[in-house]
Design goal:
alpha/beta; globular; Spore Coat Polysaccharide Biosynthesis Protein SpsA, Chain A; 8 helices; about 240 residues; about 40% helix; 7 strands
Protein backbone atom coordinates (compact mmCIF):
# COMPACT_ATOMS: atom_id res chain seq x y z
CA UNK A 1 0.00 0.00 0.00
CA UNK A 2 1.95 3.02 -1.24
CA UNK A 3 1.74 6.43 0.37
CA UNK A 4 1.54 9.78 -1.32
CA UNK A 5 4.87 11.57 -1.00
CA UNK A 6 4.72 14.61 1.28
CA UNK A 7 7.13 15.98 3.91
CA UNK A 8 6.83 13.66 6.91
CA UNK A 9 5.38 14.49 10.28
CA UNK A 10 5.76 12.43 13.44
CA UNK A 11 2.11 11.41 13.87
CA UNK A 12 -0.92 11.22 11.61
CA UNK A 13 -4.35 10.61 13.14
CA UNK A 14 -6.72 9.07 10.57
CA UNK A 15 -10.46 9.37 11.25
CA UNK A 16 -13.23 7.98 9.00
CA UNK A 17 -16.30 10.23 9.11
CA UNK A 18 -19.87 9.35 8.16
CA UNK A 19 -22.70 11.65 9.29
CA UNK A 20 -20.96 12.86 12.46
CA UNK A 21 -21.62 16.59 12.13
CA UNK A 22 -22.26 17.21 15.83
CA UNK A 23 -19.00 15.51 16.83
CA UNK A 24 -16.59 17.24 14.46
CA UNK A 25 -15.88 20.45 16.38
CA UNK A 26 -15.11 18.63 19.64
CA UNK A 27 -13.12 16.00 17.71
CA UNK A 28 -10.74 18.57 16.23
CA UNK A 29 -10.44 20.46 19.51
CA UNK A 30 -9.77 17.35 21.58
CA UNK A 31 -7.14 16.03 19.15
CA UNK A 32 -5.46 19.45 19.20
CA UNK A 33 -5.50 19.61 23.00
CA UNK A 34 -4.22 16.04 23.38
CA UNK A 35 -1.31 16.41 20.96
CA UNK A 36 -0.22 20.04 21.26
CA UNK A 37 1.37 19.29 24.61
CA UNK A 38 3.70 16.71 23.05
CA UNK A 39 7.02 17.53 21.45
CA UNK A 40 6.07 16.24 18.02
CA UNK A 41 4.53 17.37 14.75
CA UNK A 42 1.12 15.95 13.90
CA UNK A 43 -1.75 16.07 11.44
CA UNK A 44 -5.39 15.02 11.54
CA UNK A 45 -6.53 13.24 8.36
CA UNK A 46 -10.31 13.00 8.11
CA UNK A 47 -11.99 10.96 5.39
CA UNK A 48 -15.63 11.85 4.78
CA UNK A 49 -17.47 8.79 3.48
CA UNK A 50 -20.06 10.73 1.42
CA UNK A 51 -21.93 12.05 4.46
CA UNK A 52 -25.40 13.49 3.91
CA UNK A 53 -25.56 15.72 7.01
CA UNK A 54 -23.05 18.42 6.05
CA UNK A 55 -20.06 16.78 7.76
CA UNK A 56 -17.76 17.32 4.78
CA UNK A 57 -18.55 21.01 4.51
CA UNK A 58 -17.99 21.51 8.23
CA UNK A 59 -14.63 19.76 8.03
CA UNK A 60 -13.58 22.10 5.22
CA UNK A 61 -14.56 25.06 7.40
CA UNK A 62 -12.58 23.70 10.34
CA UNK A 63 -9.56 23.08 8.11
CA UNK A 64 -9.53 26.74 7.12
CA UNK A 65 -8.70 27.58 10.75
CA UNK A 66 -6.52 24.51 11.49
CA UNK A 67 -3.82 23.88 8.85
CA UNK A 68 -2.97 20.49 10.37
CA UNK A 69 -6.45 19.21 9.49
CA UNK A 70 -6.60 17.44 6.12
CA UNK A 71 -9.99 16.66 4.58
CA UNK A 72 -10.55 13.88 2.05
CA UNK A 73 -14.01 13.46 0.54
CA UNK A 74 -15.42 10.33 -1.11
CA UNK A 75 -17.68 10.81 -4.11
CA UNK A 76 -19.74 7.78 -3.06
CA UNK A 77 -20.23 5.91 0.20
CA UNK A 78 -17.50 3.24 0.36
CA UNK A 79 -17.31 2.09 3.98
CA UNK A 80 -14.93 2.27 6.92
CA UNK A 81 -12.16 0.11 5.49
CA UNK A 82 -12.00 2.17 2.30
CA UNK A 83 -11.87 5.36 4.37
CA UNK A 84 -8.97 3.99 6.40
CA UNK A 85 -7.04 2.96 3.29
CA UNK A 86 -7.51 6.41 1.75
CA UNK A 87 -6.37 8.00 5.00
CA UNK A 88 -3.31 5.75 5.20
CA UNK A 89 -2.33 6.59 1.63
CA UNK A 90 -2.51 10.34 2.29
CA UNK A 91 -0.99 10.31 5.76
CA UNK A 92 2.54 11.67 6.17
CA UNK A 93 3.24 10.40 9.68
CA UNK A 94 6.01 8.07 10.79
CA UNK A 95 3.37 6.81 13.20
CA UNK A 96 -0.27 6.50 12.15
CA UNK A 97 -3.13 6.41 14.64
CA UNK A 98 -6.76 5.61 13.91
CA UNK A 99 -9.90 6.39 15.87
CA UNK A 100 -13.60 6.94 15.22
CA UNK A 101 -15.34 10.29 14.91
CA UNK A 102 -18.02 9.38 17.45
CA UNK A 103 -15.66 10.20 20.37
CA UNK A 104 -16.53 7.04 22.26
CA UNK A 105 -12.81 6.44 22.52
CA UNK A 106 -10.64 9.24 23.86
CA UNK A 107 -8.16 11.18 21.69
CA UNK A 108 -6.55 11.96 25.04
CA UNK A 109 -5.35 8.33 25.19
CA UNK A 110 -3.14 8.75 22.10
CA UNK A 111 -0.13 9.97 24.16
CA UNK A 112 -0.39 6.76 26.20
CA UNK A 113 -0.23 4.62 23.04
CA UNK A 114 2.78 6.62 21.83
CA UNK A 115 4.48 6.08 25.16
CA UNK A 116 3.93 2.32 24.97
CA UNK A 117 5.31 1.84 21.45
CA UNK A 118 8.36 3.97 22.11
CA UNK A 119 9.20 2.56 25.54
CA UNK A 120 8.56 -1.08 24.64
CA UNK A 121 9.84 -0.96 21.07
CA UNK A 122 6.75 -2.56 19.55
CA UNK A 123 5.34 -1.77 16.13
CA UNK A 124 1.73 -1.15 17.14
CA UNK A 125 -0.43 -0.46 20.18
CA UNK A 126 -4.14 -1.31 20.01
CA UNK A 127 -6.79 -0.37 22.53
CA UNK A 128 -8.84 -2.52 24.87
CA UNK A 129 -11.97 -0.62 25.87
CA UNK A 130 -12.32 -0.75 29.63
CA UNK A 131 -15.77 -0.34 31.17
CA UNK A 132 -17.68 -0.33 27.88
CA UNK A 133 -20.34 2.40 27.83
CA UNK A 134 -22.61 0.65 25.33
CA UNK A 135 -25.90 -1.17 25.77
CA UNK A 136 -25.87 -4.65 27.26
CA UNK A 137 -26.90 -6.18 23.93
CA UNK A 138 -24.15 -4.38 22.07
CA UNK A 139 -21.54 -5.49 24.61
CA UNK A 140 -22.76 -9.10 24.43
CA UNK A 141 -22.83 -9.23 20.63
CA UNK A 142 -19.40 -7.59 20.46
CA UNK A 143 -17.95 -10.09 22.93
CA UNK A 144 -19.38 -13.01 20.94
CA UNK A 145 -18.08 -11.62 17.62
CA UNK A 146 -14.67 -11.10 19.21
CA UNK A 147 -14.63 -14.71 20.41
CA UNK A 148 -15.58 -16.05 16.96
CA UNK A 149 -12.89 -13.97 15.21
CA UNK A 150 -10.21 -15.10 17.63
CA UNK A 151 -11.24 -18.75 17.34
CA UNK A 152 -11.17 -18.66 13.55
CA UNK A 153 -7.93 -16.68 13.27
CA UNK A 154 -6.21 -18.36 16.26
CA UNK A 155 -5.62 -14.98 17.84
CA UNK A 156 -5.72 -13.46 21.32
CA UNK A 157 -6.91 -9.93 20.55
CA UNK A 158 -9.01 -8.90 23.54
CA UNK A 159 -11.02 -6.18 21.78
CA UNK A 160 -10.95 -6.50 17.99
CA UNK A 161 -13.57 -3.75 17.65
CA UNK A 162 -11.74 -1.01 19.54
CA UNK A 163 -11.14 1.78 17.01
CA UNK A 164 -8.18 3.36 18.84
CA UNK A 165 -4.91 2.07 17.40
CA UNK A 166 -1.37 3.30 16.69
CA UNK A 167 0.99 1.73 14.14
CA UNK A 168 4.30 2.34 12.44
CA UNK A 169 3.68 3.68 8.94
CA UNK A 170 5.92 1.04 7.39
CA UNK A 171 3.94 -1.71 9.13
CA UNK A 172 0.76 -0.58 7.40
CA UNK A 173 2.40 -1.33 4.05
CA UNK A 174 2.06 -5.06 4.82
CA UNK A 175 -1.73 -4.90 5.11
CA UNK A 176 -3.76 -6.34 2.25
CA UNK A 177 -6.67 -3.92 1.76
CA UNK A 178 -10.15 -5.45 1.64
CA UNK A 179 -13.63 -4.46 2.75
CA UNK A 180 -13.80 -5.35 6.44
CA UNK A 181 -10.06 -5.23 7.10
CA UNK A 182 -10.54 -2.64 9.87
CA UNK A 183 -11.78 -5.44 12.15
CA UNK A 184 -8.54 -7.41 11.73
CA UNK A 185 -5.75 -4.81 11.79
CA UNK A 186 -3.77 -6.37 14.71
CA UNK A 187 -3.91 -9.81 13.10
CA UNK A 188 -2.89 -8.47 9.69
CA UNK A 189 0.06 -6.65 11.27
CA UNK A 190 1.18 -9.83 13.03
CA UNK A 191 0.92 -11.71 9.74
CA UNK A 192 3.43 -9.21 8.36
CA UNK A 193 5.87 -9.99 11.19
CA UNK A 194 5.13 -6.87 13.27
CA UNK A 195 4.68 -6.76 17.03
CA UNK A 196 1.43 -5.65 18.63
CA UNK A 197 0.82 -4.56 22.22
CA UNK A 198 -2.70 -4.37 23.68
CA UNK A 199 -3.32 -1.36 25.93
CA UNK A 200 -6.35 -0.54 28.12
CA UNK A 201 -8.07 2.69 27.02
CA UNK A 202 -11.13 4.61 28.16
CA UNK A 203 -14.58 4.39 26.63
CA UNK A 204 -17.49 6.84 26.71
CA UNK A 205 -21.18 6.66 25.77
CA UNK A 206 -22.17 8.25 22.49
CA UNK A 207 -23.42 11.77 23.22
CA UNK A 208 -24.21 12.97 19.69
CA UNK A 209 -25.26 11.38 16.42
CA UNK A 210 -26.22 7.73 16.15
CA UNK A 211 -24.50 4.43 15.57
CA UNK A 212 -24.22 3.36 11.92
CA UNK A 213 -23.70 -0.32 12.64
CA UNK A 214 -26.32 -3.06 12.74
CA UNK A 215 -25.77 -6.25 14.69
CA UNK A 216 -26.77 -9.08 12.37
CA UNK A 217 -25.39 -7.65 9.13
CA UNK A 218 -22.04 -7.09 10.88
CA UNK A 219 -22.12 -10.66 12.23
CA UNK A 220 -22.56 -12.20 8.78
CA UNK A 221 -19.88 -10.03 7.17
CA UNK A 222 -17.54 -10.52 10.11
CA UNK A 223 -17.82 -14.32 9.89
CA UNK A 224 -17.11 -14.27 6.16
CA UNK A 225 -14.15 -11.94 6.65
CA UNK A 226 -12.73 -14.03 9.50
CA UNK A 227 -12.81 -17.11 7.28
CA UNK A 228 -10.97 -15.12 4.60
CA UNK A 229 -8.29 -14.01 7.07
CA UNK A 230 -7.89 -17.63 8.24
CA UNK A 231 -7.36 -18.63 4.60
CA UNK A 232 -4.72 -15.91 4.22
CA UNK A 233 -2.96 -17.09 7.37
CA UNK A 234 -2.83 -20.67 6.12
CA UNK A 235 -1.82 -19.78 2.55
CA UNK A 236 0.69 -16.98 3.10
CA UNK A 237 4.17 -17.57 1.75
CA UNK A 238 6.94 -18.21 4.25
CA UNK A 239 10.54 -17.96 3.06
CA UNK A 240 13.87 -16.72 4.27
CA UNK A 241 17.15 -16.12 2.44
CA UNK A 242 20.36 -17.58 3.79
Amino acid sequence: MSQVEFPAVELSVVVPVFNELANLDPLVERVRTALDGLALSWELVTVDDASSDGSADRLVELAAAEPRLKVLRFAHHAGQSAALVAGFQHARGRWIAVTDADLQTYPEDLPRLLEVVKEEGVDAAVGIREQRRDSGWKRLSSRFANWVRNRLTREDIVDTGCPLKLMRAEAIACIIPFDGMHRFLPTLLRMGGYTVRQVPVRHAPRTAGRSHYGTWDRAVRGLRDALGVRWLQDRRLRWKLR
